Amino acid sequence: MKEIIYFTTEEKRKEFTLKVLDIFKDQIKGTVFIKPNMVSYEEFPTTTHPETLETVIKYLQENGHEIICGDGQGIDVSNKKVEDHIIKKICKKYGIEFLNLYNEPMRKFKSPRGFTIKMSEIPFKANSIISLPNLKSHPHWELHMTGALKIVVGYFTTWERIKMHMHAYIPLAKNRWKMIAEANWFLMKQKESPTHLTIMDAMEPLIYANEIRHGGKPVKLRPGYLLASKCPTVLDIFGFDILKKVEPRYKNRDISYVPYIKYAIKYGICNSEYELKEVELD
Predict the structure, then answer these.
(1) Cβ–Cβ contacts within 10 Å for residue 245, how many?
(2) Cβ atoms of 149 and 188 closer than 8 Å
(3) Nearest-CA neighbor of 40 among 240, 187, 212?
(4) In sequence order, which residues have a C-beta less than 8 Å from that of residue 196 and are 6 or more positions away?
(5) CA–CA separation, 50 and 36 (whole Å)
(6) In this predicted model, what pLDDT tens digit does every residue of 55-75 receive, in sequence order?
(7) Distance of CA 17 to the CA centre of its chain
(8) Which CATH entry fits the domain spanning 3-278: 3.90.1570, 3.30.1560, 3.40.50, 3.30.70?
(9) Residues forming beta bridges with residue 81, ordered by sequence position
(10) What is the model's pTM?
(11) How does pLDDT run across 233-254, given as a tens digit for each residue?
Protein backbone atom coordinates (compact mmCIF):
# COMPACT_ATOMS: atom_id res chain seq x y z
CA MET A 1 0.00 0.00 0.00
CA LYS A 2 1.39 3.37 -0.99
CA GLU A 3 2.19 6.01 1.59
CA ILE A 4 0.30 9.29 1.33
CA ILE A 5 2.04 12.66 1.13
CA TYR A 6 -0.38 15.45 1.96
CA PHE A 7 0.59 18.76 0.41
CA THR A 8 -0.32 22.28 -0.49
CA THR A 9 1.41 24.81 -2.70
CA GLU A 10 -0.21 27.67 -0.80
CA GLU A 11 1.95 29.44 1.75
CA LYS A 12 -0.61 29.01 4.51
CA ARG A 13 1.26 27.25 7.28
CA LYS A 14 -1.35 27.61 10.00
CA GLU A 15 -4.21 26.39 7.83
CA PHE A 16 -2.24 23.46 6.39
CA THR A 17 -0.90 22.38 9.77
CA LEU A 18 -4.36 22.40 11.35
CA LYS A 19 -5.79 20.34 8.48
CA VAL A 20 -2.98 17.80 8.76
CA LEU A 21 -3.32 17.52 12.54
CA ASP A 22 -7.03 16.82 12.09
CA ILE A 23 -6.27 14.14 9.48
CA PHE A 24 -3.91 12.40 11.92
CA LYS A 25 -5.81 13.16 15.14
CA ASP A 26 -6.58 9.50 15.85
CA GLN A 27 -2.89 8.61 15.56
CA ILE A 28 -1.65 11.40 17.83
CA LYS A 29 -1.77 9.93 21.31
CA GLY A 30 -1.05 10.92 24.90
CA THR A 31 2.28 12.67 25.43
CA VAL A 32 3.63 14.25 22.25
CA PHE A 33 7.26 15.08 21.61
CA ILE A 34 7.61 18.00 19.18
CA LYS A 35 10.94 17.94 17.34
CA PRO A 36 11.64 21.26 15.62
CA ASN A 37 14.81 21.85 13.65
CA MET A 38 16.80 24.32 15.78
CA VAL A 39 20.26 23.61 14.43
CA SER A 40 21.54 27.13 15.15
CA TYR A 41 20.73 30.69 16.19
CA GLU A 42 19.42 31.48 12.71
CA GLU A 43 15.70 31.65 12.09
CA PHE A 44 13.63 30.33 9.18
CA PRO A 45 14.53 28.94 6.65
CA THR A 46 17.48 27.50 8.59
CA THR A 47 15.21 26.56 11.49
CA THR A 48 11.54 25.62 11.82
CA HIS A 49 9.05 28.32 10.89
CA PRO A 50 7.60 29.75 14.14
CA GLU A 51 4.02 29.77 12.83
CA THR A 52 4.12 26.02 12.26
CA LEU A 53 5.47 25.30 15.74
CA GLU A 54 2.98 27.62 17.42
CA THR A 55 0.07 26.06 15.53
CA VAL A 56 1.11 22.55 16.62
CA ILE A 57 1.50 23.57 20.26
CA LYS A 58 -1.87 25.33 20.41
CA TYR A 59 -3.66 22.41 18.75
CA LEU A 60 -2.14 19.84 21.09
CA GLN A 61 -2.88 21.89 24.20
CA GLU A 62 -6.47 22.47 23.12
CA ASN A 63 -6.87 18.72 22.67
CA GLY A 64 -5.48 17.83 26.09
CA HIS A 65 -2.06 16.46 25.13
CA GLU A 66 1.01 16.70 27.35
CA ILE A 67 3.83 18.26 25.32
CA ILE A 68 7.58 17.78 25.36
CA CYS A 69 9.67 19.89 22.98
CA GLY A 70 13.41 19.99 22.39
CA ASP A 71 16.42 19.64 20.12
CA GLY A 72 20.19 19.65 20.20
CA GLN A 73 21.74 22.52 18.24
CA GLY A 74 24.82 22.14 16.05
CA ILE A 75 27.92 21.12 17.96
CA ASP A 76 29.63 24.40 17.02
CA VAL A 77 26.83 26.53 18.50
CA SER A 78 26.92 27.47 22.19
CA ASN A 79 23.85 27.38 24.42
CA LYS A 80 24.15 31.12 24.89
CA LYS A 81 23.77 31.77 21.17
CA VAL A 82 20.40 30.02 21.03
CA GLU A 83 18.94 31.08 24.37
CA ASP A 84 16.83 33.83 22.74
CA HIS A 85 15.75 31.83 19.69
CA ILE A 86 12.17 32.36 18.54
CA ILE A 87 11.48 28.62 18.96
CA LYS A 88 12.32 28.86 22.67
CA LYS A 89 10.25 32.02 23.01
CA ILE A 90 7.19 30.29 21.56
CA CYS A 91 7.60 27.36 23.95
CA LYS A 92 7.90 29.75 26.89
CA LYS A 93 4.78 31.62 25.74
CA TYR A 94 2.76 28.42 26.11
CA GLY A 95 4.38 27.26 29.34
CA ILE A 96 6.53 24.54 27.76
CA GLU A 97 10.13 23.97 28.76
CA PHE A 98 12.34 23.65 25.69
CA LEU A 99 14.77 20.82 26.39
CA ASN A 100 18.37 20.94 25.29
CA LEU A 101 18.71 17.25 24.46
CA TYR A 102 22.45 17.32 25.16
CA ASN A 103 21.56 17.79 28.84
CA GLU A 104 19.01 14.98 28.97
CA PRO A 105 19.59 11.23 29.52
CA MET A 106 21.21 9.36 26.64
CA ARG A 107 21.16 5.64 25.88
CA LYS A 108 23.05 3.33 23.53
CA PHE A 109 20.82 1.55 21.03
CA LYS A 110 21.79 -1.49 18.98
CA SER A 111 19.93 -2.52 15.84
CA PRO A 112 19.35 -6.07 14.54
CA ARG A 113 22.15 -5.29 12.08
CA GLY A 114 24.58 -4.74 14.97
CA PHE A 115 24.79 -0.97 14.44
CA THR A 116 25.00 1.11 17.63
CA ILE A 117 24.11 4.75 18.27
CA LYS A 118 23.97 6.69 21.51
CA MET A 119 21.02 9.05 21.45
CA SER A 120 18.44 10.82 23.58
CA GLU A 121 15.89 8.84 25.57
CA ILE A 122 13.43 11.75 25.48
CA PRO A 123 11.54 10.90 22.25
CA PHE A 124 11.04 7.34 23.45
CA LYS A 125 9.14 8.65 26.48
CA ALA A 126 6.43 10.06 24.22
CA ASN A 127 3.44 8.28 22.71
CA SER A 128 3.72 10.30 19.51
CA ILE A 129 6.39 12.36 17.77
CA ILE A 130 5.72 15.34 15.51
CA SER A 131 8.80 16.43 13.55
CA LEU A 132 9.02 19.84 11.91
CA PRO A 133 11.97 19.87 9.47
CA ASN A 134 12.79 22.24 6.65
CA LEU A 135 13.93 20.94 3.29
CA LYS A 136 17.55 21.99 2.72
CA SER A 137 20.69 21.08 0.89
CA HIS A 138 23.85 20.13 2.78
CA PRO A 139 27.58 20.66 2.12
CA HIS A 140 28.79 18.24 -0.55
CA TRP A 141 31.35 16.32 1.50
CA GLU A 142 28.87 15.51 4.21
CA LEU A 143 25.24 14.50 3.84
CA HIS A 144 23.97 16.15 0.63
CA MET A 145 20.43 16.80 1.88
CA THR A 146 18.57 17.44 5.11
CA GLY A 147 14.88 16.89 5.59
CA ALA A 148 12.52 14.39 7.19
CA LEU A 149 14.97 11.56 7.92
CA LYS A 150 18.00 13.61 8.90
CA ILE A 151 16.16 15.56 11.59
CA VAL A 152 17.01 12.67 13.96
CA VAL A 153 20.60 13.95 14.16
CA GLY A 154 19.30 16.35 16.81
CA TYR A 155 18.87 13.32 19.10
CA PHE A 156 22.53 12.25 18.94
CA THR A 157 25.20 12.83 21.56
CA THR A 158 27.91 15.38 20.80
CA TRP A 159 30.44 12.60 20.19
CA GLU A 160 28.16 10.74 17.80
CA ARG A 161 27.64 13.95 15.82
CA ILE A 162 31.37 14.57 15.68
CA LYS A 163 31.98 11.05 14.36
CA MET A 164 29.30 11.36 11.68
CA HIS A 165 30.85 14.60 10.41
CA MET A 166 34.37 13.19 10.16
CA HIS A 167 35.77 12.38 6.74
CA ALA A 168 35.19 8.71 5.95
CA TYR A 169 38.91 7.84 5.94
CA ILE A 170 39.36 8.80 9.62
CA PRO A 171 39.32 5.59 11.73
CA LEU A 172 36.86 6.95 14.32
CA ALA A 173 34.33 8.05 11.70
CA LYS A 174 30.95 6.31 11.54
CA ASN A 175 28.88 5.63 8.45
CA ARG A 176 26.81 8.82 8.52
CA TRP A 177 24.16 7.49 6.16
CA LYS A 178 23.57 4.33 8.18
CA MET A 179 23.43 6.41 11.37
CA ILE A 180 20.48 8.40 10.07
CA ALA A 181 18.61 5.38 8.76
CA GLU A 182 19.28 3.30 11.88
CA ALA A 183 18.15 6.10 14.20
CA ASN A 184 14.87 6.31 12.29
CA TRP A 185 14.54 2.54 12.64
CA PHE A 186 15.03 2.78 16.42
CA LEU A 187 12.33 5.45 16.63
CA MET A 188 9.79 3.81 14.34
CA LYS A 189 10.22 0.04 14.21
CA GLN A 190 10.83 -1.13 17.76
CA LYS A 191 8.04 -2.57 19.88
CA GLU A 192 5.83 0.18 21.29
CA SER A 193 7.56 2.87 19.21
CA PRO A 194 5.83 6.27 19.20
CA THR A 195 3.53 7.12 16.32
CA HIS A 196 5.05 9.54 13.83
CA LEU A 197 3.98 12.59 11.88
CA THR A 198 6.32 14.81 9.91
CA ILE A 199 5.32 18.24 8.62
CA MET A 200 8.06 19.47 6.29
CA ASP A 201 8.43 23.01 4.98
CA ALA A 202 9.63 23.23 1.37
CA MET A 203 8.49 26.75 0.60
CA GLU A 204 11.94 28.31 0.77
CA PRO A 205 14.66 25.64 0.87
CA LEU A 206 18.33 26.43 1.28
CA ILE A 207 20.70 25.34 -1.46
CA TYR A 208 24.50 24.86 -1.22
CA ALA A 209 24.35 24.37 2.58
CA ASN A 210 21.93 23.78 5.43
CA GLU A 211 22.58 27.11 7.16
CA ILE A 212 23.07 30.62 5.84
CA ARG A 213 26.22 31.03 7.94
CA HIS A 214 27.73 28.05 6.07
CA GLY A 215 26.87 29.44 2.64
CA GLY A 216 23.25 28.37 2.32
CA LYS A 217 21.15 30.42 -0.08
CA PRO A 218 17.36 30.63 0.36
CA VAL A 219 15.40 29.95 -2.81
CA LYS A 220 11.75 30.95 -2.98
CA LEU A 221 10.14 28.11 -4.90
CA ARG A 222 7.35 28.63 -7.42
CA PRO A 223 5.52 26.54 -6.49
CA GLY A 224 6.74 25.81 -3.03
CA TYR A 225 5.36 23.02 -0.91
CA LEU A 226 4.17 22.27 2.58
CA LEU A 227 4.26 18.51 3.03
CA ALA A 228 3.13 15.98 5.61
CA SER A 229 3.28 12.23 6.04
CA LYS A 230 3.70 9.53 8.67
CA CYS A 231 6.57 8.21 6.51
CA PRO A 232 9.75 10.34 6.49
CA THR A 233 11.28 8.23 3.70
CA VAL A 234 8.78 9.27 1.05
CA LEU A 235 8.99 12.89 2.13
CA ASP A 236 12.72 12.83 1.41
CA ILE A 237 12.26 11.01 -1.90
CA PHE A 238 9.81 13.70 -3.02
CA GLY A 239 11.92 16.41 -1.39
CA PHE A 240 14.94 15.31 -3.41
CA ASP A 241 12.96 15.83 -6.61
CA ILE A 242 12.01 19.32 -5.41
CA LEU A 243 15.62 20.25 -4.67
CA LYS A 244 16.79 18.94 -8.04
CA LYS A 245 14.96 21.86 -9.66
CA VAL A 246 17.04 24.49 -7.85
CA GLU A 247 20.22 22.87 -6.46
CA PRO A 248 22.96 22.85 -9.16
CA ARG A 249 24.83 19.96 -7.46
CA TYR A 250 21.80 17.70 -7.93
CA LYS A 251 21.70 18.03 -11.70
CA ASN A 252 21.58 14.60 -13.37
CA ARG A 253 21.63 12.87 -9.95
CA ASP A 254 19.25 10.17 -8.82
CA ILE A 255 18.15 9.23 -5.33
CA SER A 256 21.31 7.19 -4.73
CA TYR A 257 23.06 10.55 -4.23
CA VAL A 258 21.48 10.56 -0.75
CA PRO A 259 22.48 7.13 0.63
CA TYR A 260 20.57 7.37 3.90
CA ILE A 261 17.35 7.21 1.88
CA LYS A 262 18.59 3.97 0.31
CA TYR A 263 19.29 2.51 3.76
CA ALA A 264 15.92 3.67 5.10
CA ILE A 265 14.23 1.76 2.28
CA LYS A 266 16.44 -1.28 2.88
CA TYR A 267 15.61 -1.33 6.61
CA GLY A 268 11.88 -1.19 5.90
CA ILE A 269 11.23 1.95 7.91
CA CYS A 270 8.16 2.52 5.76
CA ASN A 271 7.04 2.09 2.16
CA SER A 272 9.07 3.84 -0.54
CA GLU A 273 6.10 4.27 -2.89
CA TYR A 274 3.74 7.17 -2.41
CA GLU A 275 0.82 9.11 -3.79
CA LEU A 276 0.25 12.83 -3.47
CA LYS A 277 -2.94 14.18 -1.97
CA GLU A 278 -3.60 17.89 -2.04
CA VAL A 279 -5.14 19.42 1.08
CA GLU A 280 -7.94 21.87 0.41
CA LEU A 281 -7.47 24.98 2.52
CA ASP A 282 -10.14 27.44 3.51
Answers:
(1) 12
(2) no
(3) 212
(4) 128, 129, 131, 187, 188, 230, 231, 232
(5) 10
(6) 999 999 999 999 999 999 988
(7) 15
(8) 3.40.50
(9) none
(10) 0.96
(11) 999 999 999 999 999 988 889 9
